[in-house]
């Protein structure tokens, strides 16, 4: 009975995968136990998967970071194995109570023998061919004992049969009682084992062939890797040679581009120097004649002196008739020079280095995001950006933020009178005047409320009249800077302007993608329409019309110059990419110094 129990226990201590006594047993979530090394091998077969499938029940177990060592250990099984290893194995053949220790184990008999029984066993002719294992090799783990399976229901019976349908071993009694019904096929265990061993050997042979196949594949990969390595070396040499050649070509291209810039800018500088020289000569001429003619300390008395003095007097009068300096020509000349920029080739032809192009815009973030409501040039040549969130931001032509004024006023429109007073249109459609020092003036205007007029826009014309357009009311009111009621009204003719700009004796109205040039009675003289884009306009320093066409969805803006009849003159900016904003509201103005200011709700872009 003791030997039977030991055999049952010994079977329970064997790993189902390697069929050896458990080594560092680990428990899966399904409660089955395996050697840690066996689980490592199984996990490795799954590649980088962190799920381990139980070979017995197919249940999956999560293995954190593919570390089997982190799975819980079967401490009870581990302790039992240690206890079994520490116990002596006694002879199975001796019947005395004081049995001697076993020195060998017969694999064929399934019994342990002491030295005496072993000697007798080895002399029996029928047992001479049996496989004998020394206990020292069993204990050291060099060899494994082939266990005889004992039936759990009938411990005295060996499991000498195998049911291929139930996939389990059974003793003869269990076969008769449980495995003779239809659907059960019981065969001798030895036959099954022989067939199973043969299947394993066949699989091993196939595995060997498959390994050989993959070894050839690995050798092929190594061969291809060598080819790639050779290609890498050859390419590296070619690249180095090409690099050296490219450096020579780039150096030459660099010198050409620098020459182009020098030629373009020196030509502009020469033009400006000639204009400067002419102006300085005129200053010298005026100064010399004026000093002589207006010298009160020496009054001419004789006839020759009077004649000479009279001639100089006439010369001075002729010189004074010359028109005042025309800033238009130097502005145009400097515009050519200031627009010169180098644009590097990116992703096209790097070897070509780049080309000389028009200026890239200076990009300035507004102090408050999504705040711009209006923009206008200031009397001193800077740019004022009115913010509906409060205040007017002042920027110089080089993009420097100078100051913020009227911080507590929600701005919808801003303009300047000829005496530099500031005109503010707030969110409630109220007009307020401020001095240069931002002192509020006590002047009241009877404008339409926001409920009556809707969103509004403002512009100031040359005679200091203030124009306010209303979307809902569909009209423009004209106010005197003295305040009070509107002095007249201009009706809309089937359109709803979002912005208005003064242009000579006309107004430029913007409504979505449509620009209209209307007279002071509201009659449309010229019109530009597109259904896809947004447009805004400004008056240039040369008294032409600048129009920004905005592709809001793709964040592109083009700026073009037009005549007073809205005829296209030239492209100034083509598809400049600006930063995305949510509110599709844009304004355009030009600095007195020539720079073009394009403003989005979030940012100010200054083009030279």
From TrEMBL:
<protein>
    <submittedName>
        <fullName>Uncharacterized protein</fullName>
    </submittedName>
</protein>
<dbReference type="GO" id="GO:0061630">
    <property type="term" value="F:ubiquitin protein ligase activity"/>
</dbReference>
<dbReference type="InterPro" id="IPR011044">
    <property type="entry name" value="Quino_amine_DH_bsu"/>
</dbReference>
<feature type="domain" description="RING-type">
    <location>
        <begin position="15"/>
        <end position="58"/>
    </location>
</feature>
<keyword id="KW-0862">Zinc</keyword>
<keyword id="KW-0597">Phosphoprotein</keyword>
<keyword id="KW-0863">Zinc-finger</keyword>
<dbReference type="InterPro" id="IPR000315">
    <property type="entry name" value="Znf_B-box"/>
</dbReference>
<keyword id="KW-0479">Metal-binding</keyword>
<dbReference type="InterPro" id="IPR017907">
    <property type="entry name" value="Znf_RING_CS"/>
</dbReference>
<dbReference type="InterPro" id="IPR001841">
    <property type="entry name" value="Znf_RING"/>
</dbReference>
<feature type="compositionally biased region" description="Basic and acidic residues">
    <location>
        <begin position="320"/>
        <end position="329"/>
    </location>
</feature>
<dbReference type="GO" id="GO:0008270">
    <property type="term" value="F:zinc ion binding"/>
</dbReference>
<dbReference type="InterPro" id="IPR027370">
    <property type="entry name" value="Znf-RING_euk"/>
</dbReference>
<dbReference type="GO" id="GO:0005654">
    <property type="term" value="C:nucleoplasm"/>
</dbReference>
<feature type="domain" description="B box-type">
    <location>
        <begin position="146"/>
        <end position="189"/>
    </location>
</feature>
<dbReference type="InterPro" id="IPR011042">
    <property type="entry name" value="6-blade_b-propeller_TolB-like"/>
</dbReference>
<feature type="region of interest" description="Disordered">
    <location>
        <begin position="320"/>
        <end position="341"/>
    </location>
</feature>
<dbReference type="Pfam" id="PF00643">
    <property type="entry name" value="zf-B_box"/>
</dbReference>
<dbReference type="Pfam" id="PF13445">
    <property type="entry name" value="zf-RING_UBOX"/>
</dbReference>
<feature type="compositionally biased region" description="Basic residues">
    <location>
        <begin position="330"/>
        <end position="341"/>
    </location>
</feature>
<dbReference type="InterPro" id="IPR047153">
    <property type="entry name" value="TRIM45/56/19-like"/>
</dbReference>
<dbReference type="InterPro" id="IPR013083">
    <property type="entry name" value="Znf_RING/FYVE/PHD"/>
</dbReference>
<feature type="domain" description="B box-type">
    <location>
        <begin position="86"/>
        <end position="135"/>
    </location>
</feature>
């Amino acid at each position: 009975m003791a030997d039977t129990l030991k055999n049952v226990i010994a079977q329970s201590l064997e790993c189902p995968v390697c069929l050896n006594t458990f080594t560092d047993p680990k428990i899966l979530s399904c409660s089955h136990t395996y050697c840690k090394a066996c689980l490592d091998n199984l996990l490795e077969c799954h590649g980088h998967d962190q799920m381990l499938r139980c070979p017995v029940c197919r249940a999956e177990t999560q293995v954190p970071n593919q570390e089997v060592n982190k799975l819980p250990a079967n401490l009870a099984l581990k302790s039992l194995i240690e206890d079994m290893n520490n116990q002596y194995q006694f002879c199975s053949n001796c019947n005395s109570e004081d049995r001697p220790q076993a020195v060998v184990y017969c694999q064929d008999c399934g019994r342990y023998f002491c030295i005496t029984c072993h000697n007798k066993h080895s002399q029996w002719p029928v047992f001479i061919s049996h496989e004998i294992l020394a206990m020292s090799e069993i204990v050291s783990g060099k060899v494994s004992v082939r266990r005889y399976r004992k039936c759990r229901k009938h411990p005295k019976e060996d499991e000498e049969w195998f049911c291929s349908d139930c996939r389990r071993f059974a003793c003869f009694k269990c076969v008769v009682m449980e495995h003779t019904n239809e659907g059960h096929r019981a065969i001798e265990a030895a036959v099954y084992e022989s067939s199973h061993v043969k299947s394993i050997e066949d699989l091993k042979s196939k595995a060997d062939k498959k390994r050989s196949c993959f070894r050839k594949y690995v050798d092929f990969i190594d061969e291809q890797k060598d080819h790639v390595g050779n290609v890498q070396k050859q390419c590296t040499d070619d690249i180095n040679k090409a690099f050296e050649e490219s450096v020579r070509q780039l150096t030459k291209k660099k010198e050409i581009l620098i020459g182009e810039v020098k030629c373009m800018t020196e030509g502009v500088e020469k033009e400006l120097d000639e204009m400067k020289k002419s102006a300085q000569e005129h200053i010298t001429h005026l100064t010399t004649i004026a000093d002589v003619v207006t010298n009160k300390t020496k009054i001419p008395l004789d006839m020759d002196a009077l004649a000479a003095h009279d001639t100089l007097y006439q010369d001075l009068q002729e010189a004074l008739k010359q028109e005042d300096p025309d800033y238009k020509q130097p502005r145009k000349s400097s515009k050519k020079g200031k627009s010169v920029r180098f644009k590097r080739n990116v992703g096209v032809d790097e070897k070509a280095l780049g080309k000389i192009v028009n200026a890239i815009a200076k990009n300035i973030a507004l102090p408050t995001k999504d705040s711009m409501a209006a923009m206008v040039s200031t009397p001193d040549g800077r740019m004022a950006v009115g913010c509906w969130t409060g205040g007017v931001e002042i920027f110089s032509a080089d993009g420097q933020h100078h100051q913020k004024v009227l911080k507590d006023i929600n701005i919808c429109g801003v303009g300047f009178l000829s005496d530099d007073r500031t005109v503010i249109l707030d969110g409630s459609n109220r007009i307020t005047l401020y001095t240069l020092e931002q002192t509020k003036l006590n002047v009241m205007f009877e404008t339409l409320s926001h409920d009556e007029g809707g969103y509004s826009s403002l512009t100031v014309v040359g005679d200091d009249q203030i124009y306010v357009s209303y979307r809902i009311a569909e009209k423009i009111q004209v106010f005197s800077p003295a305040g009070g009621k509107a002095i007249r009204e201009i009706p809309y003719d089937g359109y709803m302007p979002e912005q208005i700009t003064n242009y000579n004796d006309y107004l430029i109205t913007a409504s979505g993608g449509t620009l209209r040039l209307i007279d002071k009675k509201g009659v449309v003289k010229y019109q530009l329409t597109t259904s896809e884009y947004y447009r805004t306009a400004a008056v240039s320093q040369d008294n032409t019309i600048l129009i920004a066409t905005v592709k809001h969805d793709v964040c592109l803006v083009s700026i073009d110059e037009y005549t007073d009849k809205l005829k296209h003159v030239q492209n100034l900016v083509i598809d400049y990419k600006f930063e995305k904003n949510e509110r599709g509201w844009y304004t355009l103005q030009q600095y007195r110094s020539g720079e073009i200011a394009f403003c989005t709700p979030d940012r100010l872009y200054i083009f030279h």
